[in-house]
Amino acid sequence: MQCNCGFSFAKAVMEESKPGYFPFETFTVICDNDVSEYVKLESQVSATSSLKEVPRRIAAAAKLVGRILICPRCAALHFLTPKTDAYVQYQRMPDKEN
Ligand SMILES: [Zn+2]
Predict the structure, then answer these.
(1) Model pLDDT for residues 34-80, shown as the tens digit of each residue
(2) Residue 77 C-alpha to ligand 1 middle, in angstroms?
(3) Which of 39, 66, 70, 80 would be a feasible disulfide site paired with 29, CB 3.0-4.6 Å?
(4) Is 85 left (phi over 0), alpha (psi -120 to 50) or beta?
């Protein structure tokens, strides 16, 4: 994934990531309407003793999770939407002058 300004998120991850560190800010996003379903699915993951069932339950919960990545060069928001994995880029507007 690459920003309109030319910043490559994948390249930055490959070249600059260390355990527990990303070279840009990311956020996990869950639609407010899906939060209770997400919590229920996550609790089912730890409640099962079936090793075959765990990946299925994790995948079901993960489908409700999206991501926002912020470009460190231009502050554009890159939104990977929950459920559909659609990709939308939002460009930062210039700050208003008072
Ligand atoms: Zn950018």
Answers:
(1) 999 999 998 988 888 788 888 888 888 999 999 999 999 999 999 99
(2) 8
(3) 66
(4) left
β-bridge mates for residue 75, sequence order: none
Give the distance (Å) from ligand 1 centre to CA of residue 92.
Answer: 9
Taking the centre of ligand 1 as the mean of its atom positions, its distance from the CA of residue 30, in whole angstroms, is: 24
Residue 94's CB is within 10 A of a number of other CB atoms, namely: 5
Contacts of 6 (CB under 8 A, 6+ apart): 73
